[in-house]
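Hi all, a correction to my earlier message: I attached the wrong file for TauD/TfdA family dioxygenase. Here's the right sequence:
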Amino acid sequence: MPLTDVRPLQEGLPFGVRIGGLTREILKDKTIRDEIDALFIKHGMIVFEDVEQSDEMQLALSSCFGPLKEHPVKGLARVDSDRMPGVIEIRSKRGRGIVEVDGRQVSHWLPWHFDHCYNDELNRAGVLRSVERVEEGGVTGFLDGIALYEAFPRDLRERIEGKDVIYKLSTQYEDLKFGRPAQYRMIEPKPMPESFREQAAAMPRAIHPAVWTRPTGEKCLHVSAYMAQGILGDETPEGDALLEAVCQEINRLAETCSYHHTWRPTDMAIWDNLRMLHCVSGNDPEEERLMYRTTISGDYGLGRWETAPRELAAADAMA
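and the right structure:
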């Protein structure tokens, strides 16, 4: 039995679909599951509408796309590691992690990025649901790297293609080096548990290509402003200027070719982390927001460490 409620995500967008009417019972059908995965491969993003809001439903949807993966950052809050490995809690706490963006103070704002850029291995996707919503803001934006590559100015695209970008696990707003909004300053730093601080200090920098070619043949522009440190082999004023130009062009193009999702109580969404960029608008610092995200395993095999992680280097020395 094929899916009966599949619609474009938004008129005029080259990516994304909406699927309605799914239940846990329907998802037991392998034909349906395979059809959903094929739509995901083609369109890069799916918003599931009017679905049961439960851990069990989130896991059932996630399992259509591959096994769950444990999140690489040990300090992040887990929902239930024994029952739901890889499911993290993303909470915007009142009065914490505040940044001023274009004259407005918000918490939990994030620029355009892809997940796990600070790691040598990415994840295929994430499935996200809103557990506690805010009155205003808390919007998640999505941007297609295939469309970005096609829309980029040719000269800038040719200059960044073939380059590798260096990333470092660095989450504080004041550490954002590239793609900053015109008006930008940190008001209140994000909470940083000591376990997170120690892991970030121990991790080497990670390297990922700015442009990569998908197995289906399309080229994808895949640059995260968040946590970017510079261009490999060109950490110079000239190299930084190139990366800044790329990040600002992403910001500019996002104004006309991105999708911004306002969360409803009955929504879940998945996006292709190897293809898409996403961002978060932030919300009133006096309000709290809570999201649950599963992490779907599946890497593209193009990332690497700049140097060996300390634990690997120690193991090699003992061998």
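Sorry for the mix-up. The radius of gyration is 19 Å.
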